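Course assignment 3, question 2. Fill in each field.
Student: A.L.
Task: Predict the tertiary structure for the chain below.
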Amino acid sequence: MSKKILVVGGGLAGTIVANGLCRHLGKELRSKTVQITMLGTSERHLYQPALLFVPFGLAGEDDLFRNQRKLLNRHITYHVDPAKHIDAKNKKVTTKQGKVLYYDYLILATGSRIMPQSIPGMAEGGHWFYDLDGARKMRSALQEFTGGKIIINVNAPHKCPVAPLEITFMLYDYLEKRGLLDKSEITYTYPIGRLHALEPVADWCKPEMDKKGIKYETFFNAETVDPEKKTITSMEGSTLEYDMLITIPPHAGMDVVDKSNLGRGGWATTDPKSLQHSKHDTIFVIGDTTDIPISKAGSTAHFETEVVIANITSLIQEGCWSRYYDGKVFCFLETGMDEGTYVWFDYETPPNPGPSSQMIHWLKLTYNRLYWLSARGLL
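Answer field:
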């Protein structure tokens, strides 16, 4: 009988892993001893990191999307039909349309979703760039902005750990180029006692904010937003007034993870090295779906997929394990409109941001163009 590989999720992580497995298991796919099926939510694939550039008019919407089926290897069967329930004991998945699919190996790549509605008033009073509709509204608001107080409010958990810093520094340059900097005040809030969860990054960004005159407040966990009064209040009792509120909304995983008893909050319980589900060794978890306490970022997904591809290939072809994940993450960090730096780290090595340069900014823009090759598993 053929081995059935089922990928649940058609975002970056799911697409890379499915295409990568096709590249390594070509002989088995041609002989039909392996089958690969993917369940997704859309015919279109969105390049999410480019949403950061939309509010500033630096990315066109046509650059954000590709046809999902055209990104996938021809050996992959793709269904626009999300998983409704996963029966790990019997190795089967039931979809929202009622299909029942069995698997030998399941790859959970269900991703995450923003939850601005979980904080009263935030959906009505805030702007964000984590989905296309939000990025469009933020673009319109910035175009109409003539000066005032801007609050950049960071909530946890959230994906792309450096995005709050990127939007802050890019906004500073944007206001400066529009001649609005002297008429504006930027305040950045963070939920813990420093400016970033990664201490070396927090140590790096504090003097950068001080140099630019960006204000900040730590231990600020948003509790309510009042869109009429234009205030945001924290659980700690601090209330800030704003003319424009830019928020990094809290994120959650997908309901199917909770309803299938595979994790809490939509985050699947995951072994940090094998990337297998902690209770089911035929389930692998990648990307935002894991509960591993590391960055939820595209590069994290990329490095994780390399490990999962190697191990499933080795298990099918040789009956043995191949390698473990070392926690590697690499993130470009825009420090303005035309400069950037980067951070990389793993389970053993802390991040160490370097000086900003225009070259690193252009490297990030280059990667944006190469993303589609990465999704196809070619990079």
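Instructor remarks: The chain has a mean pLDDT of 95. Residues 306 and 376 are 13 Å apart (CA to CA).
Grade: pending
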